[in-house]
Design a protein that fits this description.
Strand content: 25-35%
Largest sheet: 7 strands, mixed
Shape: globular
Radius of gyration: 20 Å
Bound molecules: adenosine-5'-diphosphate, magnesium ion
Number of strands: 13
Number of helices: 11
Helix content: 25-40%
Distance between the termini: 40 Å
Structural class: alpha+beta
Length: 321
């Protein structure tokens, strides 16, 4: 690499994100030394983004930086955790300084907005691949998990669903329509908003929580099966964005809301006796979440429309081919 590995780390990653008092040693030593607050448990997640697999090869570099952290922030949000420290394992074909500057800007901006410090990593040469590990904490015993749901719990999802899958189709020029709607959907894919504050707030309410990365139906199904129950979603209640409905029409938009990935919304279950308090303390208009169904004793995940169970193919892609 033209730029030495040392110079590259110094220039782009030594002071990425925020400085934090609980970082005893960050970038520069053999490992980071971090102080977990008393009474808290450490929460750890990692996710890899491979060029050409998880994002198009020619994605805007700041979007690659943003998404590599966002997917991990979303995992911590689903645990009800507060993010604190990130590590970055970066594999690059070459030290392209323009690419690196934008990548670090995208990663750094999202890190700062969640008060995350980049405390270490690894830099190697090879096909473009980005792995972020994110560490955070929760008060001991208070983490949300996938497995705490019970039959009868009400199921909610944050934000709107299906946007990112449509946004990826826009990015790959597989979807046409009004420019403003396409721009908005593309943004939902390139720069997803992890629901970190909502996840923390849900600690007192949710019995189970998962972030939606593979598609709402699949992920709600994973939450249900981890909780040893099933889930029933109401077709007409699925939250759709206006741009998605405008571009795809309502039927395809609802199918994509169920099957499209990469939205990074939170799907969570709330016991009936917590609902009134949830609705008053976290007003849905302000916190942007929607009631979409319920957990039930019978296993599996199904979608109900006007009292009948719908059949679903799990391939949102078909609609753009
Ligand atoms: P070692 O060979 O001991 O693993 P490195 O030379 O790989 O050390 O890294 C030196 C320091 O720079 C370490 O503190 C490491 O965590 C940090 N580092 C390396 N690559 C990155 C990166 N891409 N982002 C942030 N920190 C990095
Ligand atoms: Mg070492």
């Amino acid at each position: 690499m033209a730029l030495s590995e040392f110079a590259l780390i110094e220039r782009y990653f030594r002071s990425c994100g925020v400085p934090r008092a609980d970082v005893i040693l960050g970038v520069g030593d053999d490992a980071a030394l971090l102080r977990v607050p008393a009474g808290c448990e450490l929460v750890a997640a990692t996710d890899t983004l491979v060029a050409g697999v998880h994002f198009p090869q020619d994605s805007p570099p700041d979007s690659v930086g943003h998404r590599s952290l966002a997917v991990n922030l979303s995992d911590l949000a689903a645990m009800g955790a507060r993010p604190a420290w990130a590590l970055l394992a970066l594999t690059l074909p070459q030290a392209d300084e323009a690419w690196l500057a934008e990548f670090a800007a995208g990663l750094g901006e999202l890190a700062r907005s969640h008060e995350v410090a980049l405390v270490g990593g690894d830099t190697t040469r090879g096909p473009l691949c980005v792995t972020v590990q994110l560490l955070g904490f929760v008060p001991a015993g208070a983490a949300l998990t996938r497995s705490g749901g019970r039959a009868g719990d009400v199921v909610f999802v944050s934000g709107t669903c299906g946007d990112a899958a449509a946004g990826l189709a826009v990015e790959q020029q597989r979807l046409t329509g009004p420019a403003e709607a396409r721009r908005w959907l593309r943004e939902r894919f390139l720069r997803p908003t992890p629901r970190v504050a909502l996840g923390e707030q849900l600690r007192g309410f949710a019995s189970a929580c998962i972030d939606v990365s593979d598609g709402l139906l699949a992920d709600a199904g994973k939450l249900a099966s981890a909780s040893h129950v099933g889930v029933e979603l109401a077709y007409s209640e699925l939250p759709l964005s206006e741009p998605l409905a405008a571009l795809l029409g309502e039927r395809h938009a609802r199918e994509l809301a169920l099957t499209g990935g990469d939205d990074y919304e939170l799907c969570f279950a709330v016991p009936p006796h917590h609902i009134a308090r949830l609705l008053s303390q976290l007003p849905p208009q302000e916190w942007r979440y929607t009631r979409i169904g319920a957990l039930r004793a019978a296993p599996g995940a199904s979608v109900v429309r006007d009292g009948t169970v719908m059949e679903f193919s799990h391939s949102g892609y078909e609609h753009f081919s």
